[in-house]
Amino acid sequence: CQTDKALKVTAGSLDVHPTEKALVVHYEVEASILGEGGGHMLGERKEGQKIIRVKSLSPSTDVGALAKKVVEECKLIPSSRLPQVEQLLYYLQNRKSSPVEGKISNSLQMCLCSFLSLGSALILQLARNPDNLEELLHNEAALGALARVLREDWKQSVELATIIIYIFFCFSSFSQFHGVVSHYKIGALCMSVVEHELKRHDVWREELRKKTKAYILSPENGSLRRDQDKALRKYQGLLAKQEQLLRVSLYLLLNLAEDTRTELKMRNKNIVGLLVKVLERDDEELLVLVVSFLKKLSIFLENKNDMAEVDTVEQLARLVPCDHEDLLNLTLRLLLNLSFDSGLRAKMVEVGLLPKLTALLGDENNRQVAMRILYHISIDDRFKGMFVYTDCIPQLMQMLYEHSEEDVEAEIISICINLAANKRNAQLMCEGNGLKMLMKRALKMKDCLLMKMIRNISQHDGPTKPLFIDYVGDLAAEIRAEEEEVWVLECLGTLANLTIPDLDWELVLKEYNLVPYLKDRLKPGSAEDDLILEVVIMIGTVSMDDACAAMLAKSGIIPALIELLNAQQEDDEFVCQIVYVFYQMVFHQATRDVIIKDTQAPAYLIDLMHDKNAEIRKVCDNTLDIIAEYDDEWGRKIQSEKFRFHNNQWLDMVESRQADEAEPYLYDNDNDRTDLFYSADGITPADGSVSPDFFSDLQPQNGDMHHTGGYKHGLVTGQKASKQHIILSNLFLPNTK
Known about the structure:
single chain, Leucine-rich Repeat Variant, mainly alpha, disordered C terminus, 6 strands, elongated, 3-stranded antiparallel sheet, 62% helix, 38 helices
């Protein structure tokens, strides 16, 4: 059967409000269900009233114009009733209330509020029992009346507002009842309540401040003293009631924030700013609620950014430490969430949280959270040095002493690894038997994290580095193919950091047979890149020793390094470290001759003179300067290439003109590292060596190298020599990143 619904609204009588400047419009709503033929099947009628407040009405108001405006905006009043509206407004305009009537009106209002508070309190007793919520939910009239009273009169009575919001809070405690709370817009009302109450609190505090200041200026004035005492008692009484209202309002909002869409609406109404302002209070229960709310909000980036814009960290800092265990723990967890932001970490250090957090390392209940915040702070190089001025490092070292080998918390060793990257921190860690204890435990347990900490300590020059001499043998003994790569990486990295002049590296390499291991690990793909890089760094370190450098050169390390350079030409770190090995080796006569005469290393270095990486250019230039000083032929080629580079713009112009007149160049004149093809049938001899004689046919003309004959070894054939411009930097080395 097809049915339709019909809704009919009929306007009723008009009247004036008994106490306010307002009109009361009575109306009737008739809801009907029509049958298929349009006949009336079922109907229901309800009466209602609408209050139209005209607060702007004054003796000078144009009543006629106001009446027209009321009729236009209120659809319940037909235009035919305009004269009646005008008459009622005229009555309101001239109605006067005597002082007695005003007192009676206020008394009635107070009685009404008391009556409503009593009735609401009875409903609250029912609502606090979850079994009654379902029944109350079906009583729409009662809930609607409570919502209407809250909406219209919450400013008149803090107690009444608190009770009504508490009733709806009972519903908000269960997700299935959130719909009814949203239906009556209680969440939006609570936001308005919180905002208004915070403003009222500012007014109260200012009034109290003025009276306190007046008393301080005239302490002998008894009247001012009494006024100040009275104002303080009044402030404390108002504050206690207000904080109850704030607590129940914020609890309700916290429950509703389970829905992220509702939470977004709260953010748009500045919920973060309101909560942070409440952090100024001293009521611990209220603070627990506010910090919990902020902690929930902080997991979203937008909310975290809002907290960064206000004084969140400053307000939280005063709560650390505190006697309330739950409040302290929640505050630390909120700070942990915020500490993922580098700007907020800086703010934490700025407001003095670092020593406070360090002091909590001895608190069993809060140590782990405090340690995680400290870990985040220790990540930032700006703040590593500030740990020196706390007792954090002694406490961490004591924890390492006391914990068994298998029971060291990850947070402890992680902070130690970060802090060890600072020179002064490393010195504190090595005080007493600190380094001995660390080495003993790391070697016994083969603890990679502990060895990483030791490796960070070993990088610093000064009094800590000589302490490692006693452990060079122990570390070298761990450099074996059968050990785990990650363990070998840390041990090798520690050894590579030991740039100690008196250390006999030749003896170390021979005694522990490390040269074959180092040479094997230089092969591309023989191990992870991190380990291969540490091998290169290790070779650079031991090459400071004359005898050790000669031994490595004779073992064929240099061709292996060049092969690795070919394979890792896109990795600036590899390129820089390999060039540094060449730099160390050209210091020694034996290895200098090998590099200059028996390898193609100088050609690579010439190409790297103009690399995009500044560090590579610097090491390269220093190495080439030494080569040029000891070998005249290479010196001329290096000088020619430098001259060519400094006149590069002019050369580009010349080459561009030639390109327009002739065929394209074989390769571009840029600073890229092109692929290398150095082999027996390529540009170099089969033994991998390049002699300065190779360039004997290259004559510099205006800074450019022009070939006077054909190309050697047939790299380029079928081209006229006059059409080819050999750009030395492109002839030898690969593309930079």
